[in-house]
Design a protein that fits this description.
The chain is 56% helix and 14% strand. The protein is α+β, with helices and mostly antiparallel strands. It has two domains: 157 residues, PhyR, sigma-like (SL) domain (Butyryl-CoA Dehydrogenase, subunit A, domain 3, Up-down Bundle); 137 residues, Nuclear Transport Factor 2, Chain: A (Roll). It comes from Thermomonospora umbrina.
Length: 306
Amino acid sequence: MTRSEEFQELRPLLFSIAYRILGSVAEAEDAVQETWLRFGASTTRPTSTKAYLSATVTRISIDVLRSARVRREAYVGPWFPEPLLADPYEDPERSAELADSVSMAALLLLERLSPLERAVFVLREVFGFGFQEIASAVERSEGACRQLAVRARRHMDEGRPRFEADRREREELAERFFDAFKEGDLDGLRELLAADVQMVGDGGGKSPQWKPITGAGNVARILAAIVPPFVRIGGVVEAHQVNGQPGAILRDRDGKILNTLALDILDGRVQTIRTILNPDKLAHMGPVADAWAILREANRARRRPL
């Protein structure tokens, strides 16, 4: 097998490691590309290509994350990871860990960890690497990596949301939610929302943005008011998994992406709605709509009689 073939075979794993460390599709793709350049420039053949490439992409991602943290401190409004519609890496033996670790809620928890803690947690808890491999990847002793893993696991467990185990129930509730969502069914929405539900948007100062909205009544009223006019002007609500959780992509009449929605569901109710409108975070998914123009057109449609 050639170097290129080996790399392509491992590319999904490398991207998945980098994305969980960085929370950015674009930065993860750049980290994977840099890993390939270093692999191609190396004059020696590693004993384990998987170990070498995983260590390389981890080190690159840690460096990128350290500089990204500074930028995120100056971010306008709430910061969310870039939405991921499909994780390219599959491992039946670790499917539960992979699905949980890519959710918006889990990635936001990972933001609380130091870059080293985050890398160690991802390699150990998500991908099942041994501490010897992790120590080589992060250039720390095995003992230090074990301590980092313990601290990271404690921080994650303290804030980890407990999603319902039954994926089918989540999908059925999400289907009912989006039916009510598209119809502007106020009562139907309120019935599916937790009493203390929160809706939060990430516009990054580049799209229409609202302050976090809390409470089933408030969230239901907002959704019932804004979605029907959007549909009336040709907008489409496309149900889709977003970061491994029930969600949707909203598109304009030309198919351009307006935003994504991701739902956290617990105890048979929607607990959190996270929407991403920042065009910079949507560009990897395709052409992005002009959110301001859509808002103006939807407002005009709302004022017109049916």
